[in-house]
Amino acid sequence: MSPQGPRPGGRSARVQAAVHGAVLALQAERPRHEITVPLVAARAGVTPSTVYRRWGDLTELLADVAAARLRPDAAPADTGSLRGDLVAYAEQYLEEMSSPAGREVLRDLVAGAAPALPAGRCDAYVRGQLEAITARERARGGAPPPVGEIVERVMAPITYTILFVATALALADAARLVDALLAPRAAPVSPG
Fold first, then answer.
1. In degrees, to the nearest 5, what angle opens at C-alpha 174 toward C-alphas 171 and 175?
2. What topology is assigned to 82-182 in CATH?
3. Exposed, middle or buried by CB within 10 Å (0-12, 13-18, 19+), for 63?
4. Pick the CATH number of 11-56 from 1.10.10, 3.40.50, 1.10.3470, 2.30.30
5. Which residue range or ranges hold the HTH tetR-type domain (predicted)?
6. CA-CA distance, 94 to 106, in Å (whole number)?
């Protein structure tokens, strides 16, 4: 291994791919409480010490696999308008993350002891998609809200509700959150 880290496509990448594949296969076959590091290692064809050395424990491994599952595989939809793009993205996120598999991914991320690692990557993925949407809007001549505000006012409420609220959001709720974000704001009233 070089001082810069593992070589892309080298042994490290092969081990990661094998271990991630093993976790995904095991998650499809059995309940989470039956998944162990030795079981993952055996399925991946590596030793348990390899898994512990790289991920520390099962919780961190599951968080890493969850983060990898959230990596976007395409640019966000281009509907021709900022509202349309944000609604399409928020609805897709809501639909995917409120599924049983999506909830499991979010819970694995939250359970990770080092949230700055896998969870930070997921935040970067979401912000990257939102950056693409807002850059597209600027190219159309619009003035989109900052990405941080979109995260706080649209994505965070969706994620919080998926994780902690018994009543699920409907797709219309994603559009409602976007509409509230984009609603014209009243000018502050100056004391007279």
1. 95
2. Tetracycline Repressor; domain 2 (1.10.357)
3. buried
4. 1.10.10
5. 13-73
6. 12
Contacts of 9 (CB under 8 A, 6+ apart): none
Amino acid at site 99: S
Distance CA 80, CA 139 (A): 11
pTM of the model: 0.74
Query: pLDDT value at position 33?
Result: 87
86 vs 58: CA distance, rounded Å: 35
pLDDT at residue number 190 = 59
Q: Where in the chain is the domain with CATH 1.10.357.10?
A: 82-182
Three-state SS string over 140-189 comes to CCCCCCCHHHHHHHHHHHHHHHHHHCCCCCCHHHHHHHHHHHHCCCCCCC
Q: What is the dihedral of CA 54, 124, 23, 25, to 10 degrees?
A: -150
Q: Say how far apart CA 154 and CA 157 lie, in whole Å.
A: 6
